[in-house]
């Protein structure tokens, strides 16, 4: 079947298969050239030739418009008003080298329940600027032995509340060390038996040292004692509470992001 919008005196070729060629629609008249002869036909005209199969050249002799040509076997009887013709089977079509088929319009296709459609190849698709394609579902992908799949980019993923992503690996996870942006030093002096270092959310860790001149151990939190000159490193951003003898001091360095 040939179905195309043609300009005046435009020529197109297609492969006819069958014994008849019927002009279903044309603006005025078309010039038909087959391997058996030339014909000038109007809408509703028909060529019947048992050796019609072959390349056909169509030339639009009228104004621009739609040209529809039907080919097949036997004799074509066009449907009356409101009647439809159902084509249940078509013969194999062989195209000549470098010959192309222009598909300008296809009818709707209804699939039976459970009937699949296999698409082996699609043409390249070019998107306009800011145009997006949404893929709602992909089929299962099975990789052959030794085959690898490289994912160079993924879209942003938003997790619902209480949703988690579990990551498992048989190799140790290596992380880069935190590099300090700055250091903040301070000296706490115990008064009335206590001293406190405020919380700091920018802190990576904190270095503590009980001053060597202290007369008594300094107690951190609920009983961790630092003797005079003893040091301690803590990975925390929380506030730190100390207890000890009045006048004793704690040397502090905060490592900040």
Task: Put the structure in a nutshell.
This protein is an all-beta fold and 257 residues long. The chain is built from no helices and 16 strands. The strands form 4 sheets. A 4-stranded antiparallel β-sheet has the order 1-8-3-6, with no helix packed on it. Strands 2-7-4-5 form a 4-stranded antiparallel β-sheet, with no helix packed on it. It has a 4-stranded antiparallel β-sheet with strand order 9-16-11-14, with no helix packed on it.
Strands side by side in the biggest sheet: 1-8-3-6
Q: Per DSSP, what share of the residues sits in E-state strands of 2 or more residues?
A: 25-35%
Q: In angstroms, what is the radius of gyration? A: 42 Å
Q: List low-pLDDT spans.
A: none
Distance between the termini: 73 Å
| Helix amount | under 10%
Number of strands: 16
Average residue pLDDT: 84
Sheet having the most strands: 4 strands, antiparallel
Shape category: rod-shaped
Sheet/helix structural class: mainly beta
Elements, N to C (H/E)? EEEEEEEEEEEEEEEE
Number of helical elements: 0
